[in-house]
Each structure stands twice: as structure tokens, then as C-alpha cells.
């Protein structure tokens, strides 16, 4: 059996506090597991980044989830 190719899933966020956890949980619960999530925050003013950092500590430390913080909404 051939190994699964690595896939990068890019999740762009701007004040998406009410959507992000459900979205990330859905991605993590897929049967296909050869992926990384790149969570890009566009200078949100809500709690969305803190919520992601607090809930997904293990995924961040294992590099399954990477957070990029922009200083502007680009």
C-alpha cells in the first residue's frame, strides 16, 4: 500500500470565533490523516485565536496545527 500524500489545509480566519472549533474538529475527525492545518488569522479582534490555541495544544505541539498571525487583515 502506498503512503498517503501530505496535504496542507489552509483555514483563513477573521473574527470566526463561533465557527473555528467546529471546523477544526471536523478536519481532525476525517479518516484521511496525512495532513497539516495552517490556521491564518487576519488580525481578529475576537477571541478566536486564543480559543484555538487553548483547545488544540497537542495538535500545535505535534505540528498538526500551525497558527500564523497577521498584523493586518489581508
Keywords, please?
3-stranded parallel β-sheet, alpha/beta, 3 helices
How many helix segments?
3
N to C succession of SSEs: EHEHHE
Give the CA-based shape: elongated
Report how far the terminal alpha carbons are from each other: 42 Å
Describe the largest sheet. 3 strands, parallel
Radius of gyration: 13 Å
Strand content: 25-35%
Number of strands: 3
Summarize this, please?
By secondary structure, this protein is an alpha/beta fold. It contains three helices and three strands, in the order E-H-E-H-H-E.
Structure overview:
This protein has 74 residues and is of the alpha/beta class. The protein has helices at 17-28, 48-55, 57-61, and strands at 7-13, 35-42, 65-70. Strands 1-2-3 form a three-stranded parallel beta sheet. Helix 1 (17-28) links the parallel strand 1 and strand 2 (35-42). Helix 1 (17-28) packs parallel to helix 2. The longest helix is centred in the N-terminal third of the chain and has 12 residues, at 17-28. It is elongated, with a radius of gyration of 13 Å. The chain starts with 6 loop residues before the first strand and ends with a strand.
Strand and helix map with partners:
Blueprint: E1 7-13, H1 17-28, E2 35-42, H2 48-55, H3 57-61, E3 65-70
Parallel strand pairs: 1-2, 2-3
Helix pairs in contact: 1-2
